[in-house]
Amino acid sequence: MASGGGGVEEVTNKQVLFKEYVSGFPKESDMHVSTSGTIKLKVPEGSNAILVKNLYLSCDPYMRPRMKQPTPGSQAYIDSFKPGSPIDGYGVAKVLDSGHPDFKKGDLIWGMTGWEEYSLITTTQGLFKIHHTDVPLSYYTGLLGMPGTTAYIGFYEICTPKKGEHVFISAASGAVGQLVGQFAKLSGCHVVGSAGSKEKVDLLKNKFGFDEAFNYKEEPDLAAALKRYFPEGIDIYFDNVGGKMLDAVLLNMRVHGRIAECGMISQYNLEQPEGVFNLMSVVWKQIRMEGFLVFEYYHLYPKFLEFVLPHIKEGKITYVEDIAEGLESAPAALIGLFTGRNVGKQVVVVARE
Amino acid sequence: MASGGGGVEEVTNKQVLFKEYVSGFPKESDMHVSTSGTIKLKVPEGSNAILVKNLYLSCDPYMRPRMKQPTPGSQAYIDSFKPGSPIDGYGVAKVLDSGHPDFKKGDLIWGMTGWEEYSLITTTQGLFKIHHTDVPLSYYTGLLGMPGTTAYIGFYEICTPKKGEHVFISAASGAVGQLVGQFAKLSGCHVVGSAGSKEKVDLLKNKFGFDEAFNYKEEPDLAAALKRYFPEGIDIYFDNVGGKMLDAVLLNMRVHGRIAECGMISQYNLEQPEGVFNLMSVVWKQIRMEGFLVFEYYHLYPKFLEFVLPHIKEGKITYVEDIAEGLESAPAALIGLFTGRNVGKQVVVVARE
């Protein structure tokens, strides 16, 4: 598709464009796959940007709040998507051209990029260079990327686990949850996870080594279900869902329990969030509940890699991905997160190399 | 009222008896002042108990949950009152007789005692001996007792304040709140409190040195009120009330804010607690919300005294008490906490010496 002109190669650049701010449940049609764009595969003269070919894109729950119309205040921790522009998010990419001294042609990177075939990245500070390529490259959207770092920070820094403690994880087969459970087992904890299908529950028990797992959709009384799995209570709750499950967990926490507030996916598509009624437990049980955002902990990423790579090589940490093929499948893949359609980390392949 | 018999003086012992478990709003008639009891003013032979004359009794919000029928699980952090027996709680008392080597006749103590004229205390581990008597003795139910230690621990240990931070305190003129505000001012913070009457708001501003204060009952929109007082947000919230105020605070917290969960008095009399809807702020703003119970921090009481006594002597810390006279007034004094009738720390005088 190369076209001559000015000596710089220009190619078509398929993109997933964000159409308009979303309220309620997002739909595939809130995005649009466009093939009308073009891009020059060279960094503009004098710029310190890099030009990359996108390989793998990451679908993550935090992207839902980015679809909202920006409002001053409560949720402005990250910019909303810009209507008419490509979605952006975490991805793995290959450098085709670089105006930046830290990057050169052929480098592999992970970090924020566009939902398109090629991206000109002008803000390179947040990018990580990939040095270990003896693992699937797609892992840098999950196990070795933002979700993996989230699981590591959330579990070790926020939950302060001790051997023998009882750990509960919601959305436990997801990109983050499956790792938290495996980390907790490595730490000698008793680990129970919840997920939304039999297939996922089987994964938790048979692939990720959780002690127990249950399908929350089959539990009419979540508090009673938790009481069954934690007769003596929960020491650590790694919360990915918020809402009713959080409420049920509060009733089942132990004294001095810790709750890592990683996300609340059950709430992201509601016009009004659900009420949580059992916060008095926070007082009586001296619970610490703490929110965290992984971006503030990326200085610990090298420490995380040092911890996790040997475990991967020894087969002690495994990772399940749900791979969608091609940019055309990206809108459905992203929407699928919010119905729980994905099994494991949702990745979109744009190109394999 | 002494009566002979067995060589041991026996006297009448007026008591405030707890009648029956309470649901909903407690009433004076849930307690009964009895004059039919008697007590021997001697410790039984061979016992290591102490026999005390009660001087000042403390009315505290945590006593409301103790009126509930005990249920396994969520709120069993402290025993319920026993129907037919005297209410028990914090108080200041004088030792009349002692079978314990650590206590002798004439000692002044504070700690858990009965709502009665005289108490035989068999569990003496939790009692504190009073060494500083150049302050009003009633202060050992408040400023120098459990509420003072609560304010100290909650603010310094849980909130980890920094100079210049913006602090909000609810129930701010109460036994704990008035001290948190003064501690926060001593730490160089900007301090705003809420209370339920003009008189209390005036106290906050004119006596306790809060920068600002407001009457929450006159604010139809609590979130908007907080926005007015904290245009750049709240760094520290010392929560004494829970419920709607907590929900409004969550919307107004700053990134990395801290919430000390000291109590939720707005919820104690409700059959079902209110919902809190804005917990997503905990994630996005990386808020740490932590419950604490002062009993676990009493090893720091000497450190607290060392900190607070010089401030009292220099007039840098002041304390307002609401003193009810006589055991007969105790039921109304306790109930008054839940309507906010008290102005400052609610104390009941049984005897002045």
From TrEMBL, chains A, B:
GO terms for molecular function: 2-alkenal reductase [NAD(P)H] activity. It comes from the Eukaryota. Keywords: NADP, Oxidoreductase. Residues 34-348 form the Enoyl reductase (ER) domain. GO terms for biological process: response to oxidative stress. Pfam families: ADH_N_2, ADH_zinc_N. Its EC number is 1.3.1.74. It catalyses: an n-alkanal + NAD(+) = an alk-2-enal + NADH + H(+); an n-alkanal + NADP(+) = an alk-2-enal + NADPH + H(+). The keyword NADP applies. InterPro entries: ADH-like_C, ADH_N_2, ER, GroES-like_sf, MDR_fam, NAD(P)-bd_dom_sf. The keyword Transferase does not apply. Belongs to the NADP-dependent oxidoreductase L4BD family. This is 2-alkenal reductase [NAD(P)(+)]. It comes from Lithocarpus litseifolius.
